[in-house]
Design brief:
Strand content: 25-35%
Oligomer: single chain
Helix content: 25-40%
Radius of gyration: 22 Å
Structural class: alpha+beta
Order of helices and strands: HEEHHEEHEEEHEHHHEEEHEHEEHEE
Amino acid sequence: MKRLFPILLSLLSLLPLTTRAVEVEQLYSASIMAVGNQSNRDLQKVAFAQVLVKVSGNANIAADPVIRKALINAREYLVKQAEERIDGERYLQASFNDKKINRLLRSSEFGVWGQNRPQQIVWLVVDEDFNRSVRGETDGDYAKFIDAIKTQANQRAIPVLFPVMDLDDQLQVSSSDLWGQFTDPVELASTRYAADNYIIAKIIKQNDDYKLTWSMYGRSNSNQPFEIWLNGEGQGQLAKIGTALTNSLANHLAERYSVKASGNNEVVFLNVDAVNGITDYAKLIEMFSELSAVAQVELEAVAGSRMQLKLVLLGTQQDLLTELSLDQRIKSSKNAFDDMNFQWNAIN
């Protein structure tokens, strides 16, 4: 079998050996509530724009001239639609063609962000008259902040959750830990929620106004400690500062994980172990075919349960490795000679 390109081997050493990313559902679909007598054609455009934001990760994508033209012809990308009534309001459920959308984004020089996306957890601590407390997902006083983050995270297709703050959480994380940003207990508590990254959000209540400061912690390698990837602050009403936090978070993650076409059509070979039978093989090929960084995948050679795949890349080798690091179906490991191989980890 051909060996992996040396540059790819050197990059593989940066990969985490475990991953907890979430597969986002309905990435190419949207549900839009009609305002007044809005026509289905107008709702299709709104739904299409929302899908383009989710897939590209770019909140301002509709301002691009090529994208504006595509929005006018949203029906050309439509796969199916259905109307429904919820609490007396009319909604349009629309699904769009994923391959056409990916081609549009790449031809417009935007990135394509795949379905596997890192899980975030938000630890919220508030200060009211110098009394500090940790708030969980069901907290009523700060529901507008929590709901705004959940709503906007859904719009941007990023997995975000809040701790339940039951006895286990309370014993592990205190308000002083969060306010002082003592991260060891926060990191430990975040593992319960299978979080790839965590956010410490601190709110000071000032009469009817709120001041927010927050930090996002992430890591590129599971063998390295977490580090601050992003900082932010805001002031105003709870919904406003919650939405702004989520948009900053989504923008950063999209820049990190979306794949832009390199135009090089680079070819790499990957060895994958533990591929047992035709079912595993079919799932393996399907997985690689769905990666944003891969244009084409072919079987190059077979030796027992080991297969070698030939990949033609849309993006870069680092794009490929980043995507693979977010997929639970495949693992990377080193052998006695310090070579890196992949192993298929079939999930039923």
